[in-house]
Amino acid sequence: MKLKTADRSSAMKIYHFVLCVNLLVQCLPEGAAAAVSPYDELIPIQFSRTTRSQAMGLSYPSIGEGASTLFMNPAGLVAVRDMALYGDYTEGGALYPNGCARGCLALPFGKFAAAAGFFNKNSGAAGRWNVFLAGAAWRIIEGAKDSFLSIGAAAKIARISGERSSDCDVCGPAGTDDSGVTADIGIIVRPLPMVSIGCSSANLFEKDFETDGLADGKWRRHTRVGVSWLMQDRIIVSWDRSYYGRMKRDHYGISVRTSVPLELMTGFYDEKVTGGMRFTQRRFDLSVAFSPDGEGRLAASVSAEIYFRKRPEEIRQ
Fold it and tell me: Which of 70, 61, 93 is nearest to 251 (CA)?
């Protein structure tokens, strides 16, 4: 279905408006920007940030994104229709001075899909995080006009290692090393062609890592609920609410597909505006996202997703 000219014009006006706000925010002097929020500093929050979700203000638990949805809501793995390989890398700003990488491989089996992946973040003196995970999803119900109900789960093994200062000059710096196991669950319901509802709960088994202050050693429950409005395969407007301990955040995102194979994305949360774009082809997608860190600097993320036979059926109209 073709999008009406008036609808496309309105969508582009929304995108340009938010993009202008983003540019104004970046032009603020460094002293006028707020410090990095405790919410952004949490490793479990950073764990779920794929490139495309960063571009849309982290508002993504109700949208299937192929293989990378393993990191946000494993129920979205049902969008994978053939083997897909995903990888991304983020660097810059106060949160990613030494880089952050993730990757995963997803395989479908009829109404089921399975995936395995990793997450790595090197914070230098603040420690190094390594997470390995494996998940699966099941499309329980399939209705008319692409409506469905899916559930998913993932198991994670997290490990943090690093060095801390020591009072013993001869011994040198002391090391720290700890690991833990946890799990994620998720659900996606699409009752109507234009509405998608998602819920995910990460870190069901909470863990306090013995880090001696090297990094945020808490791996707490992280629950997200969200709704997306899907408009004729051209526009996505999404919202989700994130709960982590006593922290509560709302995330908003907009995605607009142009007549060329290009998708423009923007979003905002916690007084931050994000943006990015995705170039789509039959065999692969290339994405880039930019997000401020609250200290007048930007973090950039790039990703690639390769489809070995055909593209996934994303949770769209």
Answer: 61
